[in-house]
Amino acid sequence: MKIKRSVGEIVFDTSNVVVLLLLSAITLYPLLYVLIASLSDPAWLVKTRGLIFYPKGMTLEAYKMVFMNPATMSGYFNTIFYVVVGTSLNIVMTALGAYALSRQNVMWKNPIMFGIVFTMFFNGGLIPTFLLVNNLGLLDSRWALILPVAMSAYNLVIMRTAFAGVPVSLEESARLDGANDFTILLRVIVPLSMPVIAVMLLFYGVGHWNAWFNAMIYLRTRDLYPLQLILREILITNSTDTMMTGVGGGDKMPIGETIKYATIIVATVPILALYPFLQKYFVKGVMIGAIKG
Q: Can you give the residue ranges of the ABC transmembrane type-1 domain (predicted)?
């Protein structure tokens, strides 16, 4: 039997829907604006002010110039390398640390965990970190963007809590069958913790994809620059001249605007396309790894 809703409930639900739709529109429109601007005629875009809702004089010239730019393609390759290698190392290091700290018979487990959590609030700072990277011989190398961030204390806490939630009886059964710690981790703990592993992949992957500050500090060779650092140069220093070879002098400024928007789309869409595949694990993984009182 259908329950009759009161006028107050209807007004409340309607207000919620309207407010959420407005918030969604406010959130999505900037990305939609960038997409429309990247597809629009450069001269029309420069003259237009205010909101735009459709591309005028649709052209892919800006995207063509972005992909023809050697810096963009090398930045893509470097970013993919940093994401794949960096995320793989992150997951391995975090899983090993979380497994060790989630077992019940580990000596000095609490002091070690306190020391790790302490680094979430206090660190050596930029200059000591730079000196350390330099003394280790990592300066101006790809490993300078991977090894110093090999593990996140925050993600370690989440994964440790998830591993601790696996029943101890499963570990004991595996040990009776002759399994060692590595076998238990790979064949028992990890398969039962795939939601939190997926969340860690998302956290670490997005972090590496969006990283630019460490690259700006540690890298000197442009061939090692990630895509986000190339994007920063284009947006902040207005360096689009290298993409506009063959463009007439009067046309450089208008098409330079669309190149900026096209570069943003090229740098953003790949990581956005990853979210739908991991979304179903996201809430479950975070809840599994949440700190329980």
A: 76-276
